[in-house]
Amino acid sequence: MPATRTATTSAPAAPGRSRRDRRRRGLRTLVAGVATAATVVVLGGCSAAGLPGADGRVAVDYWLWESLQLPGYQKCADAFEAQNDDIEIRITQYGWADYWQKLTAGLVAGAGPDVFTDHLTKYPEFVNRGVILPLDDFEATADLDPADYQEGLAELWTGQDGKQYGSPKDFDTIALFYDEDVLAEAGYAPEDLEGLTWDPETGGTFEQVVAHLSVDAAGVRGDEPGFDPTNVVTYGLGSNGAGDTNGQTQWAWLAGATGWELTNAPVWGDEYHYDDPRFQASIGWLFGLVDKGFFPSYERVGSAPNPVQQLGSGQAALVADGSWTISSYLALDGVDLGVASVPAGPIGHPVSMYNGLGDSISAQTAVPDEAARWVEFLGGSECQTIVGEQGVVFPARPEGTDAAKAAFAEKGVDVEPFTDLVDDGNTVLYPVTDNAAEILSIMKPVMDGIYIGSRPVESLTQTNEQVNSLFE
């Protein structure tokens, strides 16, 4: 569930058009744009949807994108089939980019899955287009109780009509990854990363640590005389890119800690706040670290930086990244992995954006009741505990989260810096709004330009006006 999982881009709408006009135009454009891809899916036989199940059973096709989660969900399917001998679950896994292309094409062509893993940047458009069904319409999922899940997750999947369009699946937050050996070489212990503070004016104790962890080619540290910011071997803080619309792993944990809020409502806001001075100061601080030599330049890491590789190669000492990447960091050779909380900001505590995936039912399914029974199981305690025991992600149910914490502990990593944020309520919800694709197409070049240094941070004020015009 990469937070940096991005929506398909499209050109921004003209400011003078009504919302209804924009939706009609967007639907025509989307259908036309995927027509060729849909033909490929149908002719190429990429989907098994619509084919009968084995031994006369009803087949329910389920799609997901994360290969590391596939074994856990196969165990869920086996358990479900043992309890429901009239249904066969067929799982298909694609990579992130292929997933959305094939899913969108499949939904248009009638060759998609019955149930699929959905994302918060995608489902508002799916609801507007009528290609997913409300869970309220089925006996198996009508009584979904938000109290069964970590606080706030069910609300993220509640549409503007008050209906539930996704069953909470898992959640993710942000923390700092580091190599304990690199930390020790700098004279630090893991305890020295506890209780760090940050503000956009001085950088706080967090910037002091980042400076000390930065090392140039001559072995001089960033807080020592003679440090050369133009010839850095190890940056104190690694890069996850510019962050486009929500900056979940890039800057939301900084700006959110100032009290800044991305939109005017936790869910379904219709006004963005990129013009807030607190946000712009946070962005200025982060990308201002490039000139100090504490943070790699855009030119150094490229348009698609790999923070896992940066940590593993010693190019970065600290990396802020999402909980869905824990397994990738654990797989690094020669790294004694540690995890620390992001620093506390001016509001007095750390903050992380809080994202959660969901399972949705396709409107094209020929077996909606059976699909709903599978969704109910996916969101139930048994499956979410099974998934948690795999030690890959944090399931949405608290008991699944606890199982994941225990599994990660067995792998040698303490993941409480991720889960404490949820337990303590130090999270801000991932933005769920209309116009996600259009906003991305506006924000990505702007944020890239600020990171590169070709745009001033103040240009975000005008950009914000352009974004908000989409809601007029």
List keywords for this structure.
2 domains; globular; D-Maltodextrin-Binding Protein, domain 2; 472 residues; five-stranded mixed sheet; 39% helix; alpha/beta; 13 strands; eight-stranded mixed sheet
Plain-language structure description:
With 472 residues, the protein is α/β, with parallel strands linked by helices. The chain folds into 2 domains: 19-171 and 356-414, D-Maltodextrin-Binding Protein, domain 2 (3-Layer(aba) Sandwich), CATH 3.40.190; 174-354 and 433-469, 3-Layer(aba) Sandwich (D-Maltodextrin-Binding Protein, domain 2), CATH 3.40.190. The protein is built from 18 helices and 13 strands. It has helices at 19-44, 70-83, 96-109, 123-129, 153-156, 180-185, 204-213, 252-255, 277-292, 298-301, 307-313, 326-330, 368-378, 381-389, 398-410, 416-423, 436-452, 460-469, and strands spanning 58-64, 87-93, 115-118, 132-133, 167-172, 174-179, 215-216, 232-237, 316-322, 337-340, 352-362, 394-395, 427-429. The strands form 2 sheets. Strands 1, 2, 3, 4, 5, 11, 12 and 13 form an 8-stranded mixed beta sheet that branches. A 5-stranded mixed beta sheet has the order 7-8-9-6-10. Strand 1 (58-64), helix 2 (70-83) and strand 2 (87-93) form a beta-alpha-beta unit. Helix 17 (436-452) packs antiparallel against helix 18 (460-469). The chain is globular. The chain starts with 18 loop residues before the first helix and ends with a helix.
Helix and strand arrangement:
Blueprint: H1 19-44, E1 58-64, H2 70-83, E2 87-93, H3 96-109, E3 115-118, H4 123-129, E4 132-133, H5 153-156, E5 167-172, E6 174-179, H6 180-185, H7 204-213, E7 215-216, E8 232-237, H8 252-255, H9 277-292, H10 298-301, H11 307-313, E9 316-322, H12 326-330, E10 337-340, E11 352-362, H13 368-378, H14 381-389, E12 394-395, H15 398-410, H16 416-423, E13 427-429, H17 436-452, H18 460-469
Parallel strand pairs: 1-2, 1-3, 8-9, 11-13
Antiparallel strand pairs: 3-11, 4-11, 5-11, 5-12, 6-9, 6-10, 7-8
Helix pairs in contact: 1-3, 2-14, 14-15, 17-18
